[in-house]
Automatic annotation (TrEMBL):
Gene Ontology MF term list: nuclear receptor activity; RNA polymerase II cis-regulatory region sequence-specific DNA binding; zinc ion binding
Native organism taxonomy: Eukaryota, Metazoa, Ecdysozoa, Arthropoda, Hexapoda
Family: Belongs to the nuclear hormone receptor family. NR1 subfamily.
GO cellular component: nucleus
Predominant location category: nucleus
Cellular localisation: Nucleus
Protein name as it appears in the record: NR LBD domain-containing protein
InterPro entries membership: NHR-like_dom_sf, Nucl_hrmn_rcpt_lig-bd, Nuclear_hrmn_rcpt, ThyrH_rcpt
Gene3D superfamilies: Retinoid X Receptor
Domain NR LBD: 97-340
Alphabetical keyword list: DNA-binding, Metal-binding, Receptor, Transcription, Transcription regulation, Zinc, Zinc-finger
Biological source species: Anopheles culicifacies
Length: 348
């Protein structure tokens, strides 16, 4: 099966010979937890008051989310900023739309991420020195393949999250694929930020906390890439975003309307505007300006060009590795997302 056909299987990005895909709203994580959501009743965690670091606590509270708004299968359609079909719908006010979008994306984020108590437990877990040495002693080739496996698992979660963004599944299939091919690495960095322990400069990698230097190889460009990724992820962690804000930020980054090659610019801009309105409401309620009139949202938006630069750096490092080591086989989804075509999409 060629890359194009494989990307289009079941709408996008899951090869039937490699991955199990379902249109049901539910997810089984490689990290040992699962979620299952019925169309009639969508339950989740309202964790907007929590953020992840080595000191925070976790208290799940259930919320009821409009399943029609999540699935996009009912009468809702995107018109301007409002997902409605008639003007008498009770969600007519922008504030109400924001509230529904905020709850929807918060639940999508919770259902496609490590549970917070798992992250917290791993932060506090005593370091396994033998396993740490195992990773530090990996060859460049072993480290590349292991990181590709971990990144692929995270991207599977990101795809599930994208499917739950209201209006995303109504975009053309080509635009869905392009947004994910050019944006998945960027969202992985955002998600990495909630796995960072600033006190030790380490990240939750699978089921172990690893320091930055564990990912270094003898290649100077790869070392620069690792350092820049850690620096960017840490800078997001330092903003102490809530889980809900991280969910909205991921939607904003993925739907960035200036991506090259998208066809439905108007539709993507509308979805982006919805996410922008919602994250502005959420951040203004939770965060004071950082310095003068510079807000947390300003800082987050200014990071988006950095994400693009890191995506390009990752593609360049990958292409060099593949040229030097053509015998190594990467996961199918990873190969398709980060193909030469993907690099051209980023560079043009």
């Amino acid at each position: 099966m060629d890359g194009s056909n494989c990307l289009q299987t079941n709408l996008f990005l899951f090869c039937p010979h490699s991955y199990t895909y379902s249109n049901e709203v539910g997810y089984s994580s490689p990290y040992g937890y699962s979620t299952s959501v019925t169309p009639q009743q969508t339950m989740g965690y309202d964790i907007s008051a929590d953020y992840v670091d080595s000191t925070t606590t976790y208290e799940p509270r259930s919320t009821m989310i409009d399943s029609d708004f999540i699935s996009g299968h009912s009468e809702y359609r995107i018109v301007g900023k409002l997902p409605c079909q008639n003007t008498t719908h009770p969600l007519g006010a922008e504030g109400d739309i924001n509230d529904v979008l905020i709850k929807t994306l918060a639940e999508a984020h919770a259902n496609t991420n490590h549970k917070l108590e798992i992250v917290h437990d791993m932060f506090r877990k005593p370091q396994d020195v033998s396993r740490l040495l195992y990773y530090k002693n990996m060859t460049q080739e072993e480290l590349w393949l292991d990181c590709a496996e971990k990144l692929t698992a995270m991207i599977q979660q990101i795809i599930e999250f994208a499917k739950l963004i209201p209006g995303f599944m109504r975009l053309s299939q080509d635009d869905q694929i392009l947004l994910l091919k050019t944006g998945s690495f960027e969202l992985a960095i955002v998600r990495m930020s909630r796995l960072m322990d600033l006190s030790t400069n380490s990240v939750l990698y699978g089921d172990i906390m690893l320091p930055q230097e564990a990912f270094y190889t003898s290649d100077s460009f790869e070392m620069k890439l690792v350092a820049c990724i850690f620096e960017t992820a840490k800078s997001i962690t330092e903003l102490k975003l809530t889980e809900t804000e991280l969910a909205l930020y991921q939607s904003l980054v993925l739907l960035w309307p200036e991506r090259n090659g998208v066809r439905g610019n108007t539709e993507i801009q509308r979805l982006f505007n919805m996410s922008m309105s919602a994250i502005r409401q959420e951040i203004e309620a939770n965060h004071a300006p950082l310095k003068g009139d510079v807000t947390v949202l300003d800082t987050l938006l200014n990071k988006i060009p950095t994400f693009r630069e890191l995506s390009i750096m990752h593609m360049e490092a990958l292409q060099k590795f593949k040229q030097d080591h053509p015998q190594y086989v990467f996961p199918a989804l990873y190969k398709e997302l980060f193909s030469i075509d993907s690099q051209q999409d980023l560079m043009t």
